[in-house]
Design brief:
Layout lengths: L6 H4 L19 H15 L4 E6 L5 H10 L5 E7 L7 H9 L10 H17 L3 E7 L6 H10 L10 E7 L2 H6 L5 H5 L1 E7 L4 H14 L9 H11 L3 H17 L7 H9 L20 H8 L1
Parallel strand pairs: 1-4, 1-5, 2-3, 3-4
Protein name: Type II secretion system protein A
GO molecular function, one term: ATP hydrolysis activity
């Protein structure tokens, strides 16, 4: 069983609860539909700044990957993740994301001129440039102000450059700081992606199971309720506990996951990161216990 983990046992075509962002598995909760509508509104209206925030593991990055996959051909997109540093460092990230060559010895003015020329040339070819900054809560106030200055490339009725900022709730607090009033005024559209509720957690689990070739009924109603109570409806945490539960079920040759198995999993000390409160809870026992089960 170690090779297939549990996919063969349940007849899945792939693991339904991997942690990697996968647009194919995107579950369209009401909140995700609204978040996508805000993103599309920002694109259609050529908003200079669109902001999407949400708790860790709420599905922000998966949503962005879906947007990138379905972007129109007349859009040039640069994706930046975890950009950090002071003035000039951000511009290096921007040039790299757009495939603009620059010399390490170039000064800031030269780099910005290359960036501005690229944006204008793309517009002349009928394409708008969009910069997507993921984990934007890591940016400093100086970097956010630098982003605002980038939007000055726009002139008149034409918006040549659009920015989409995606981050954790701290990003909203950062943008609301007194020193970023001008930045906040340029935010045309914003949405905060909340966690799933109880019914949403049930539908989310069912959706992923069916997408992987399952029946959607591999988890009992009571098991789903226990998962929701343990995870608070955070998709990433749901994935973690469901993946482990399926390993347990297959190793014990159970046809489904009941609440007793969820309790067994938790009692064995497989505590997951408490991303709801922002604290990291250490496991009592090594993860090897689960891997041993998978190898039995």
């Amino acid at each position: 069983m170690s090779r297939s983990l549990y996919t063969d046992f349940f007849g899945f075509t792939e693991r339904p609860f991997t942690l990697s962002p996968d647009p194919d598995f995107l579950f369209w909760s009401d909140n995700h539909k609204k978040a996508l509508a805000v993103l599309e509104y920002g694109l259609m209206t050529h908003a200079p700044l669109t902001v999407i925030t949400g708790e860790i593991g709420a599905g922000k990055t998966t949503l962005i990957h879906h947007l990138l996959r379905n972007a129109e051909k007349d859009i040039t997109i640069g994706l930046i993740s975890n950009a950090q540093g002071g003035r000039g460092d951000l511009l290096h990230w921007v040039l790299y994301s757009l495939g603009i060559n620059s010399d390490p010895s170039d000064d800031y003015i030269s780099m910005f001129q290359s960036f501005q020329n690229f944006v204008i040339e793309e517009y002349a070819q009928g394409r708008n440039v969009i910069l997507v900054i993921d984990e934007a809560q890591n940016l400093s106030m100086e970097a956010l102000e630098e982003l605002r200055m980038f939007t000055n490339i726009n002139s008149g009725k034409d918006e040549l450059l659009q920015l989409i900022l995606v981050g954790q709730p701290e990003l909203r607090d950062l943008i609301s700081a007194p020193g970023l009033v001008q930045f906040a005024q340029r935010v045309t559209a914003a949405y905060h992606l909340t966690n799933l509720n109880g019914p949403g957690t049930r539908d989310y689990i069912c959706h992923r199971l069916k997408h992987a070739g399952g029946s959607g009924k591999e988890f009992s109603i009571m098991a789903v309720q226990a998962i929701y109570q343990e995870t608070g409806g955070v998709p990433r945490l749901i994935n973690k506990i469901c993946d482990l539960a399926l390993v347990y079920a297959a190793s014990e040759e159970r046809e489904g996951v009941g609440v007793d198995l969820i309790r067994e999993l938790l009692a064995d000390g497989l505590f997951i990161n408490s991303e709801i409160s922002g604290e990291v809870v250490q496991m009592k026992n090594p993860i090897g216990k689960v891997l041993n089960k998978a190898a039995e």
